[in-house]
């Protein structure tokens, strides 16, 4: 099993911190856009506002999930388990970590998990 280099960990940590900052800024901007909308208006205006609020909540939930993944990856860096696949317990490919620094799975681990999800989704 190959080891994750300190240079790769440093590179991934920088990407994770930048991604976290970008996510928090997107959440803040979306919230400001939503709160800046005028209240009142006719039924069509109110419908558009309700749809915008629903879209905001959906987007906020996706961003929250991604933020949790980023925070979890940063914690794994701190506790020394960063870059270890949760399925295979092997080292995650450096190229994969560069592309998705918050990933918990190697390519093989992702295939195993997907296979298991499909198996259980079919009920079998």
Short account of what is shown:
By secondary structure, this protein is an all-alpha fold. It has four helices and no strands.
Radius of gyration: 20 Å
- What percent strand? under 5%
CATH topology, by name, is: Four Helix Bundle (Hemerythrin (Met), subunit A)
Tell me the count of domains. 1
The CATH class is Mainly Alpha
Going by CATH, the homologous superfamily would be DksA, coiled-coil domain
Strand runs, count:
0
User: What is the 3D form?
Assistant: elongated
Low-confidence stretches: none
Q: Structural class, from helix and strand content? A: mainly alpha
The biggest beta sheet reads:
none
Please name the CATH architecture: Up-down Bundle
Give the CA-CA distance, first to last residue: 33 Å
Protein described:
Helix content is 72%, strand content 0%. It is mainly α. It has a single domain, classed as Four Helix Bundle (Hemerythrin (Met), subunit A), CATH 1.20.120. Helix 1 packs antiparallel against helix 2. The longest helix is centred in the middle third of the chain and has 37 residues, at 43-79. It is elongated. It starts with 5 loop residues before the first helix and ends with a helix.
């Amino acid at each position: 099993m190959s080891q994750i280099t300190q240079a790769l960990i440093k590179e991934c940590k920088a990407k994770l911190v930048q991604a976290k900052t970008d996510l928090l800024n997107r959440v803040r901007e979306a919230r400001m856009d939503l709160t800046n909308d005028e209240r009142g208006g006719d039924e069509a205006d109110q419908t558009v506002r309700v749809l915008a609020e629903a879209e905001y909540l959906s987007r906020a939930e996706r961003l929250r999930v991604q933020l949790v993944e980023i925070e979890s990856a940063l914690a794994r860096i701190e506790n020394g388990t960063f870059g270890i696949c949760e399925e295979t317990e092997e080292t995650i490919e450096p190229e994969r970590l560069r592309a998705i620094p918050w990933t918990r799975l190697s390519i093989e681990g992702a295939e195993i998990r997907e296979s298991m999800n499909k198996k259980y989704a079919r009920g079998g």
